[in-house]
Specification:
about 0% strand; single chain; 12 helices; 2 domains; mainly alpha; about 220 residues
Length: about 220
């Protein structure tokens, strides 16, 4: 549902209005529907006017900033040393991903999830981003940037490991995770959206039945047909 809405209404799904307590204009349900389909509220206010009254809005800032900078003719090195990246590791998205990483390691330690999927995702994403950075450093972020930005750690440990939709065999989990990691990098690098985990996980989910059928362990004495 989230991906369907994101594809259908990309601007509205990535432009969050401020809370009611700090909002300059009060909105109702009719205003929200009108803004989605016409770009204006019932009183004629635009999205830009409705977002007045706050100092900042949260979004996939690092990935979005990199994607925007590249479309403006800047190199990745220029983008990653200015603006929101000026403070290095002190900016929030790095610490958020570190927090998710620690939470994921706790899940592994408690045996809530298996190691196969997150390890495959992070390993392939690291490998793909390293190769991409070595080949075209001007148009791709560093490997650490890809690992600690966007929904990388959240997706690797808390989304892709969903026991219902993920692969169920040990080898299948490795293939499933590797596919997600590769898709994340490819969509970030060549796609139109800054982050890619929702799309990568859904596309990999489509391949789960095939992956499980090809990697299902044989019963002792049986032959693979």
């Amino acid at each position: 549902a989230y991906v369907l809405l994101l594809v259908s209404f990309p601007v509205q799904m990535t432009s969050w209005l401020p809370p009611e307590s700090v909002r300059a204009y009060s909105l109702g349900v009719g205003d929200a529907v009108s803004v989605i389909f016409t770009g204006f509220s019932l009183d004629g206010y635009t999205m830009a006017q409705l977002k007045q009254g706050v100092d900042g809005l949260t979004m996939a800032t690092p990935l979005d900033t990199l994607k925007t900078g590249l479309t403006q003719g800047l190199t990745a090195g220029e983008v990653l040393t200015h603006g929101v990246f000026a403070d290095g590791w002190g900016i929030g998205w790095s610490w958020v991903n570190l927090g998710y990483l620690l939470g994921g390691l706790l899940l592994l330690q408690q045996k809530v999830i298996n190691w196969h999927i997150p390890t495959a995702i992070l390993g392939v994403l690291l490998l793909a981003s390293t190769l991409g950075y070595l080949v075209s450093p001007d148009v791709t972020g560093t490997p650490l940037f890809h690992l600690f930005s966007g929904a990388t750690m959240l997706g690797a440990f808390f989304i892709a490991t969903d026991p219902v939709s993920a692969s169920t065999t040990p080898r299948g989990r490795l293939i499933y995770g590797a596919l997600i990691g590769l898709l994340v990098y490819l969509i970030r690098r060549f796609g139109g959206y800054p982050d890619a985990f929702a799309f990568a996980v859904l596309l990999a989910n489509l391949a789960v039945p095939l992956i499980d059928s090809l990697t299902r362990p044989l019963v002792y004495g049986a032959r693979r047909k």
